[in-house]
Design goal:
Radius of gyration: 18 Å
Largest sheet: 4 strands, antiparallel
Order of helices and strands: EHEEHHEHHH
Distance between the termini: 32 Å
Helix content: 40-55%
C-alpha cells in the first residue's frame, strides 16, 4: 500500500532561492529510486509572510520509504538542507491530514468539517461550469472527469485557502 510522508521545513532568512532550487533538483533526482512514486512542493501564497515549505512524498510501501530515507542520496541531501533550513518535521499521512500542514493535525471531525467547506462549493462550481459539457457522456466517464477536477481544485486551490481561513479554529483545542 502506498505511503505518504509530509515534510515541513522553515527556510532560513536569505536562503530561500538556494533552498528552492536545490530542492527541485533533489526531488527530480530522487525519482531514480524505484520506490519513490511521487513528490510535490507546497509553498505559501505569494506575498505571505512565511518561509515555510511543505514537501509531500509518496512511496510504494513502508519498505521502499525506509530504503529511501536510509540511502546515501537522502543523507547527503539532509546534510546540505540542514544548512539552509531549521530542522525538518516528518509526518506519515494516512488520509485527510495531508491538507492540514502542522506537526499535530486537527481532530478528524474538524478535518471533516473543513473538507466539507471546500467540497460543497467546489461541487456546485463544477456542476454549473462543466455539467452542460459532460451531460452527454456516459455516467462513469462523467463522474471520473468530475472527480479528477474536484481533486485537483481541492488540492491546489480550495483546501489551501480553506485551511488558511480556518487555521485558528483548526488549531484550537
Amino acid at each position: 500500500m502506498a505511503i505518504h510522508v509530509a515534510i515541513t521545513r522553515k527556510i532560513l532568512p536569505g536562503k530561500e532561492q538556494e533552498f528552492k532550487e536545490s530542492l527541485r533538483n533533489f526531488l527530480g533526482q530522487s525519482f531514480i529510486h524505484d520506490g519513490v512514486h511521487g513528490a510535490a512542493i507546497i509553498s505559501s501564497f505569494p506575498g505571505a509572510d512565511s518561509n515555510e515549505i511543505g514537501i509531500l512524498r509518496t512511496f510504494k510501501d513502508e519498505k521502499e520509504r525506509d530504503v529511501f530515507y536510509n540511502s546515501e542520496q537522502f543523507r547527503q541531501w539532509e546534510n546540505y538542507a540542514s544548512n539552509l533550513t531549521e530542522a525538518a518535521v516528518y509526518r506519515q499521512l494516512t488520509g485527510l491530514e495531508a491538507w492540514f500542514r502542522s506537526s499535530t493535525p486537527p481532530p478528524r471531525w474538524k478535518m471533516a468539517i473543513a473538507t466539507l467547506c471546500g467540497v460543497f462549493p467546489t461541487s456546485i462550481f463544477l456542476y454549473y461550469t462543466t455539467g452542460r459539457f459532460l451531460i452527454h457522456l456516459p455516467v462513469p466517464f462523467r463522474l471520473l472527469v468530475t472527480a479528477t477536477l474536484m481533486v485537483g481544485i481541492l488540492t491546489w486551490v480550495v483546501m489551501p485557502f480553506v485551511t488558511k481561513i480556518l487555521k485558528p479554529w483548526l488549531t484550537s483545542k
